[in-house]
Design goal:
Low-confidence stretches: 131-161, 181-186, 189-193
Number of helices: 15
Distance between the termini: 29 Å
Order of helices and strands: HHEEEHHHEEHEHEHEHHHHHHHE
Radius of gyration: 24 Å
Helix content: 40-55%
CATH topology of one domain: Rossmann fold
CATH superfamily of one domain: Alpha/Beta hydrolase fold, catalytic domain
Strand order of the largest sheet: 4-6-5-7-8-9
CATH architecture of one domain: 3-Layer(aba) Sandwich
CATH class of one domain: Alpha Beta
Structural class: alpha/beta
């Protein structure tokens, strides 16, 4: 009897907590929607004043935001948009971007849309109205943006990559080391501009060891591996490579890049596989890096010997879900104030300008935060993870989050199937915690 009463009390308390969380979240994110809307105008004004250039954002339109980087939007259907990138004067590249970059409705409009959809559903279920429905329906599967014609006619000016960091990004030597003409002394690559920053550990003997490629997660760097794993592995058996992904750590952070899956994979291939003649290798990846690891394994099925995935961000998309990218974004960022992890992810996914403010306060001033961390801990705690957390640009983090985690929602299932069918590739996954 007493246990039953306690169980009911817990369920009532849990329900009350959920209702409170829903109510507070609704108010909080309505306010954040308004703040992000106002910040859009603030940043446009400051950008125009400081940089003498008005750069469009994803609040305005997808066409303006994407074509401003020299790329042309040709399709906006089904959650995976297509863009045309002008790689050279004679070569075009068609690739995917996530529609979550420019399709992030405010909470109020989302509630309104859901209400209207429910009303429509009730009407459609009415047998009288259902009998009056027409059978003709149009479905546009692919649209071509007229700006592609302008590009082919040479009416679009060339978009050059400006290596100079934006005013809201950090311009210290660490964050801009890739811009300098000479290579960083800590970079194992000979061309720091064209390749990713790479930390390697080679065997001390001439015996051929196995190659292992380490890929870090979101808002991190190669230090995640080189300062923790490398010292604990034998130098006589393995050739270890840990990269800073494009836009993170000491790797290039081009302002014109959309940080698509293709760009990330090509940079890893150029910086590691081609530069060091890696033919057969193992991959160890964490978080967002697991998606890149799976894509590499699918692209190089004969080369990848094993995959070790730590906390992969996999969200199975239900069958029949037409907006896979939107589904994953709502799973990753449910717009809730509790738990704190959900609140942080919601800020990162939904608010382009608020996250730019956060990057300005934290990343641009990372030297101050690192100094305070060392001062508070009396320099007794190693702060290499702070460097990995701070050393990125808003443009890189924003596009990587949407184009990799959300944008690959419809591909992860096929990647997993392909890896499972490859019997030459051993897969080990570490996820969650043992209870």
């Amino acid at each position: 009897m007493q246990m039953g009463v306690m169980g009911k009390a817990r369920s009532v308390a849990a329900m009350g907590g959920r209702i409170l969380n829903e109510a507070v979240s609704f108010v909080a994110f309505c306010v954040l929607d308004l703040v992000d809307f106002l910040l859009c105008f603030v940043f446009k004004a400051v950008d125009l004043w400081v940089e003498a250039e008005l750069r469009p954002c994803y609040c305005s339109s997808a066409k303006e935001a994407i074509t401003s980087s020299g790329k042309i939007l040709v399709s906006e259907q089904g959650g995976e948009s297509k863009i045309v990138s002008l790689l050279s004067s004679t070569k075009l590249q068609l690739e995917d971007i996530s529609d979550t970059l420019y399709s992030r409705p405010s909470l109020v409009s989302e509630v309104s849309r859901l209400t209207i959809n429910e009303l429509k559903r009730f009407k459609l279920e009415d047998p009288v109205l259902q009998s009056k429905r027409g059978t003709n329906s149009r479905c546009s599967t692919f649209t071509v943006n007229t700006t592609i014609v302008e590009m082919l006619q040479g009416k679009i000016a060339r978009h050059l990559t400006h290596p100079i960091p934006r005013w809201s990004d950090c311009d210290c030597k660490l964050c801009t080391s890739w811009i300098s003409s000479s290579s960083s002394p800590h970079n194992d690559n000979t061309n720091a501009k064209a390749t990713l920053f790479l930390k390697s550990q080679c065997p001390t003997t001439d015996e051929a060891g196995e190659d292992v490629v380490f890929i870090h997660g979101f808002i991190s760097s190669s230090l995640f591996w080189s300062e923790t794993v490398f010292p604990n592995l034998s130098k006589s058996c393995y050739r270890l490579f840990a990269v800073d992904l494009l836009g993170f750590g000491r790797s290039p952070k081009p302002n014109s890049s959309l940080y698509t899956l293709r760009e990330h994979l090509e940079m890893i291939e150029r910086s590691v596989l081609e530069a060091h003649k890696v033919k057969s290798f193992h991959i160890v990846a964490h978080s967002l890096g697991c998606i890149l690891a799976l894509a590499l394994a699918v692209k190089h099925p004969q080369s990848v010997k094993s995959l070790t995935l730590l906390a992969p961000p996999f969200y199975p998309v239900p069958k029949g879900e037409t907006q896979a990218t939107q589904y994953v974004m709502r799973k990753v960022a449910p717009r809730r104030v509790w738990p704190p992890m959900a609140f942080g992810a919601s800020l990162a996914c939904w608010y382009e300008h608020i996250t730019r403010v956060i990057c300005f306060l934290i990343c641009k001033n990372h030297r101050l935060w690192e100094f305070l961390a060392k001062l508070i801990t009396r320099n007794r705690v190693r702060t290499f993870l702070l460097e990995g957390f701070f050393c990125h640009t808003h443009n890189a983090a924003w596009h990587t989050l949407h184009n990799i985690i959300c944008g690959t929602a419809g591909k992860i299932g096929s990647y997993l199937d392909a890896v499972r069918e490859n019997r030459d590739c051993k897969v080990t996954i570490f996820h969650g915690q043992k209870r």
